[in-house]
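Entry under discussion copied across for reference:
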Amino acid sequence: MTALTSLSIKEASEGLKKKQFSAKELVNASLTAVENAKHLNAFIVTTPEIALKQAAEADARIAKGEARLLDGIPIGVKDLFCTKGVLSSSCSKILKDFKPQYESTVTTNLFNTGGIMIGKTNMDEFAMGSANITSSYGNVINPWKSKNSTKDLVPGGSSGGSSAAVAARLVQAALGSDTGGSIRQPAAFTGTTGIKPSYGRCSRYGMIAFASSLDQAGPLARTVEDCALVLEAIAGFDAKDSTSLNAPVPQWAKNINPNLKGKKIGIPKEYMPDGLSAELKALWDKGTEWLKAAGAEIVPVSLPHTKYALATYYIVAPAEASSNLARFDGMRYGLRVTDGVKSLDDMYAKTRAEGFGAEVKRRILMGTYVLSAGYYDAYYKKAQRVRALISRDFEQAFEKVDALLTPTAPTPAFAIGEKMEDPLTMYLNDVFTVPASLAGVPAMAVPAGLSSDGLPLGLQIIGKLYDEQTVFDVSRAIELAANFTAKP
């Protein structure tokens, strides 16, 4: 039975159509795998009743020859997507026991194409973190182990539960969200693939917001083609989201072409900071050779404002978070602290003090500070100007090249507790992923090799706005050349 969970989406779909197994069997295999891997803490809740009902519907459609894009495929759903009648807490104590009465557009699209929800995956609280250590449900554990240590490793964040679930073969794919690298960095840490699509490609309706101008839903899966299939399923215009792209969803999976003849791939010099590990540099060079062999021309490019990206992100994102999280006050839903409360203001203060974790409080305070009178112009306004310059850097680079190749994360996965005391070191995990988020362009992480400790290392492919197809093409070329078959 467990072998079923090791199938890719494409393989599972073919097996279902050939009646080699049923959607119900696939779902039961997945539920068993999740149960047997509880020590990873990848799921905060499983939804067997919903999954088996969806499986029965999928089996009926497949029997009639009316299979949909993802019919019968078990998928994990990150806990910041609102799912009707199912716990949706963004892994925060302040949304303890919150079960929304509506469905997010992304999960609605997933279910309409036959995808099956196995449960809600663990994540950093309100998607704030790079290691999945800020969740109110406890740390997620990376299924990979270093050759030289028995220590538990972080799975990356904030979509760490989703990345661990895919890497451990608990589900065929999982939904994540990416604000500054929260799909790509966990993918790199767990040897999985993940794409942050262009901003606006997926609706944000029903996603519990962190930073509205940056948040974007996307998939984590085991292959480039699987990511393309899930993105096709969840993307699309939504009138309920004013930032949603009003354009048809391309058939990315069917059109993936790893032959890069005539394509130009840029290598940005700014992604080579002092202290980049020799292993990562060697892997990046190898990736460049692979793309040359696939027919691409390699072009050095410059993104001069990259050095300001991290500082810009950590002004813009907390500013938007402080505004978005103001709604969690104990009045309408979630946690309400009433013990020893003397006034309404006191209730607000005590609820928020008890409900939010340390990292969320830190970012709310940073955001409130940069938006306050006297500092707005000095910080927030300046950060928005720099963000425009970062976007312009990408536009100018894409006049010369079709895509960019960079590392995904500066290091392989590290041990739980290793960097927790220093927020700044944690923030540096996003150094390669943040610029694409600020510019809103699509970017994908693909596993490309192992470190000397036997841990996954990923490469990142960044594309032009709304050109996910080229990102998938280049990623597939890397995937074929790397032939990454290692498992945790």
The CA atoms of residues 195 and 444 lie 4 Å apart.
